[in-house]
Design a protein that fits this description.
Structural class: alpha/beta
Strand content: 15-25%
Number of strands: 7
Radius of gyration: 16 Å
Oligomer: single chain
Number of domains: 1
Shape: globular
Length: about 190
């Protein structure tokens, strides 16, 4: 997947302007260089993280996807969320949620799924492991992504190699984020251990 910077749409140029000039974020990379992948993002401490990550990806004319609780897809907001790559999911059944996302990923040629690995904006010590199951089932790579607020940087940092042990991989991922010393919008909400 190659980016032609000369042929970026006006929407991509607008997103780049909003990201870099209005929000003052630096894009430290381009999007992940594959057709299908999981974008494991952290620290997720604010709804603004979604805005920053969305503007980053759209500034390259890419259309990221993300899981959003189904109850928000009512009326005009539902239309907006779908246009922004939102996938409505039922959070009551984790297995049904994962199955529906796997089905969506397998049915499209290009699919970059952004997942906040903490699973919530609240401080949590145990990170969600759905990213692992989806990546293994679909056979796609996982990339570590950041949306740091001090300094204001966003990007795809590196590919994260998975093993067959979701618990060990998630602990290793938490350690990698700890070692990066990334500061979220609300630093007190980001716990890696």
């Amino acid at each position: 997947m190659e980016i032609n910077k000369d042929k970026l749409s006006w929407k991509a140029r607008l997103c780049k302007f909003l990201l870099t000039k209005c929000l003052k974020f630096e894009a430290v990379s381009g999007p992940a260089p594959v057709d299908k992948c999981i974008l494991a993002g952290a620290p997720h401490t604010s709804m603004w993280d979604f805005v920053v990550a969305y503007l980053f990806y759209r500034s390259f004319d890419y259309h990221p996807k993300c899981m959003i609780k189904a109850s928000l897809f009512k009326g005009p907001l539902g239309w907006i969320l779908r246009r922004c790559g939102g996938i409505p999911v039922d959070q009551k059944s984790k297995s049904a949620m994962v199955r529906s996302v796997i089905h969506e990923m397998e049915s499209e040629k290009i699919f970059h799924l952004a997942i906040a690995v903490e699973g919530t904006r609240k401080p949590v010590k145990k990170w969600a492991k759905g990213y692992h199951l989806i990546a293994k089932e679909v056979g796609c790579p996982v990339y570590l992504c950041i949306f740091g607020w001090n300094p204001r940087q966003v990007g795809v940092i590196k590919e994260f190699t998975l093993t067959d042990d979701a618990n060990a991989d998630t602990a290793r991922m938490q350690q990698e984020y700890e070692d990066m010393h990334i500061v979220g919008k609300h630093p007190e909400k980001f716990i890696t251990k």
